[in-house]
């Protein structure tokens, strides 16, 4: 080495020695981080397989009602919890129709996922990404963030799991109707509600322009709701209140052109409610001027007209300014691909057993709208159940023993208990009116059970069901080791011993249907049905108390108070 080069090295060494220690550490840290970043970028797909202290890794897909409820109740000190979802918040979906008209602000009904677990101990990680493939054989999920985190800038990464909890929900079901996706609004996400709110105001602003004919004004403020379920009915009621209580004062010349239509393919709206509520809602809509079209099926939607058909009138096309599609839910593509892998290709949603385990694979659970519990028939196991009770093979049992058998059936088949408690079956109940000492023919009782079997239906795709499923599964995970040693479930009909856990038991707490004009229909357990202003205040109190945090509860109550005092905001924001 030349003398000039040696002198340069000596000066560099002296400069390093004179540099404070904290600056040298900072340089090393920066270089190390850059090297690690380059190494990660060099891989096409980043694989995340780290664990925490040997704990089992639980991966949750989705942050809806089921996912958030599971996350809220799982003991994060027992598991390494990872959450993957395209949105980093939980959304209180029952108030989405209120967001469309400014009754409640969008941020008042969302709770950041990290807030839910912020004050709890244990390992927790969240990635804002979308899972597009589940590989149950290798126990991995493939995700895409969309932000670009590797060399190809496609944001792909892979996460392995020990337990997978699928709570991705569902997508709107268009029934492959032409033009729906391109021209209709949906009401499943906060973004949907915000788009509807902007579109409503744009329709009014266009109708207020001076160079339009009366027909053009009518078209611009013709609001069409396709679907007579709870979401569609509540949105129509909210929009009617918004127009009559607020926009009529701001657009007095436009008010007379406004028309709100509800199109339902069936005979009635709100068919999942008691008939008394259905008839009241239909009468109220007619009285308040909402155009209710039943037995009409939408066959095509263009950018200017909605074409619908009716057996009596044939096909008719009506112009519209805004259309909201609310006709039910469909399966997400990722779930459809997963169903093919586990042998459920011919089903509409994922099938699980009574413990929410996906049929056809191990350590995968599915909750909420993306799955349904396979309702086992009592008659499949009824002979084995009665063999235990009728030990002497007499063919008869006392009413007391029959009631004991019924209790065993309730424990094994919660859906039977739910059905019998929510429906009055005269023939079944008459069998149990006899004195407990009197004997009852077993075959007659089996016929009554067969009648129940034929009537039991799948659980509804509601927030109430999803939240209860999430809490149930989290409780099972928290007590996994305890129940492994001391099973608490019913005796196995096929095999020895007991099931580890009791099967999921849904408790129906009632349902509401806001109908506008400060009137709400309520159907609560015990065949309690009421419609009126007092029920509206019950709706306020229940929905405020059901918020995921005190923060969102206070925000929602504040929004309601602001609306009472100042009305709804009509700005196009």
From TrEMBL:
The keyword NAD applies. Keywords: Coiled coil, FAD, Flavoprotein, Membrane, Mitochondrion, Mitochondrion inner membrane, NAD, Oxidoreductase. Pfam families: NDH2_C, Pyr_redox_2. It is an enzyme of class 1 (oxidoreductase). The keyword Coiled coil applies. GO terms for cellular component: mitochondrial inner membrane. It is found in: Mitochondrion inner membrane. Its EC number is 1.6.5.9. Residues 428-455 form a coiled coil. Gene3D superfamilies: 3.50.50.100. Residues 377-412 form the EF-hand domain. It is a peripheral membrane protein. GO terms for molecular function: calcium ion binding; NADH dehydrogenase (quinone) (non-electrogenic) activity. It catalyses: a ubiquinone + NADH + H(+) = a ubiquinol + NAD(+); a quinone + NADH + H(+) = a quinol + NAD(+). Belongs to the NADH dehydrogenase family. This is NADH:ubiquinone reductase (non-electrogenic). It comes from Hordeum vulgare subsp. vulgare.
């Amino acid at each position: 080495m030349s003398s000039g080069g040696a002198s340069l090295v000596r000066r560099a060494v002296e400069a390093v020695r004179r540099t404070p220690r904290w600056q040298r550490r900072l340089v090393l840290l920066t270089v190390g981080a850059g090297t690690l970043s380059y190494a990660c970028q060099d891989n096409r797909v980043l694989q995340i397989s780290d664990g925490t202290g040997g704990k089992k890794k639980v991966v949750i897909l989705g942050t809806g009602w089921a996912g958030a409820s599971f996350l809220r109740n799982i003991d994060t000190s027992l598991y390494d919890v990872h959450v993957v979802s395209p949105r980093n918040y939980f959304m209180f979906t029952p108030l989405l129709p209120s967001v469309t008209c400014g009754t409640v602000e969008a941020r008042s009904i969302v709770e950041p996922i990290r807030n839910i677990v912020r004050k709890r101990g244990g390992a927790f990680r969240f990635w804002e990404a979308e899972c597009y493939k589940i590989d149950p054989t290798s126990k991995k999920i493939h995700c895409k963030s969309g932000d670009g985190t590797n060399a190809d800038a496609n944001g792909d990464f892979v996460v392995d799991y020990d337990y997978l909890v699928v709570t991705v929900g569902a997508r709107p079901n268009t029934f492959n109707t032409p033009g729906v996706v391109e021209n209709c609004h949906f009401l499943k996400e906060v973004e949907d509600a915000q788009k509807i709110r902007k579109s409503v105001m744009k329709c009014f602003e266009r109708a207020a322009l001076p160079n339009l004919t009366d027909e053009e004004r009518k078209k611009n403020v013709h609001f069409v709701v396709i679907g007579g379920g709870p979401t569609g009915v509540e949105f129509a009621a909210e929009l009617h209140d918004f127009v009559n209580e607020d926009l009529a004062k701001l657009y007095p010349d436009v008010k007379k052109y406004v028309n709100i239509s509800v199109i339902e393919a069936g005979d009635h709206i709100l068919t999942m409610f008691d008939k008394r509520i259905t008839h009241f809602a239909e009468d109220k809509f007619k009285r308040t001027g909402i155009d209710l079209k039943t037995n009409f099926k939408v066959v095509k939607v263009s950018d200017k007209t909605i074409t619908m058909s009716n057996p009596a009138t044939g096909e008719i096309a009506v112009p519209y300014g805004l259309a909201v599609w609310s006709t039910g839910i469909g399966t997400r593509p990722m779930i459809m691909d997963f169903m093919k892998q586990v042998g459920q290709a011919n089903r509409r949603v994922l099938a699980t057993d009574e413990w929410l385990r996906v049929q056809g694979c191990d350590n995968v659970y599915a909750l909420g709208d993306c799955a349904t519990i396979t309702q086992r028939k009592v008659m499949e196991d009824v002979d084995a159940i009665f063999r235990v009770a009728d030990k002497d093979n007499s063919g008869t049992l006392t009413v007391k023993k029959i009631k004991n058998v019924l209790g065993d059936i309730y424990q094994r088949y919660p859906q039977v208990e739910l059905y019998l408690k929510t429906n009055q079956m005269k023939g079944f109940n008459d069998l149990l009116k006899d004195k407990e000492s009197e004997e009852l023919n077993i075959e007659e009782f089996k016929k009554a059970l067969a009648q129940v079997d034929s009537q039991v239906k799948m659980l509804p795709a509601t927030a109430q069901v999803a939240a209860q499923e999430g809490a149930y599964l989290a409780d099972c995970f928290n007590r996994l080791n305890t129940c492994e040693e001391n099973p608490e479930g019913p005796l196995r009909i096929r095999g020895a011993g007991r099931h580890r856990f009791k099967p999921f038991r849904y408790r129906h707490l009632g349902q509401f249907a806001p109908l506008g004009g400060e009137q709400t229909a309520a159907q609560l357990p015990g065949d309690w049905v009421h419609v009126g202003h007092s029920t509206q205040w019950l709706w306020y109190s229940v929905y405020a108390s059901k918020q995921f945090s005190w923060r969102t509860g206070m925000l929602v109550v504040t929004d309601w108070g602001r609306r009472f005092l100042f009305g709804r905001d009509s700005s196009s924001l």
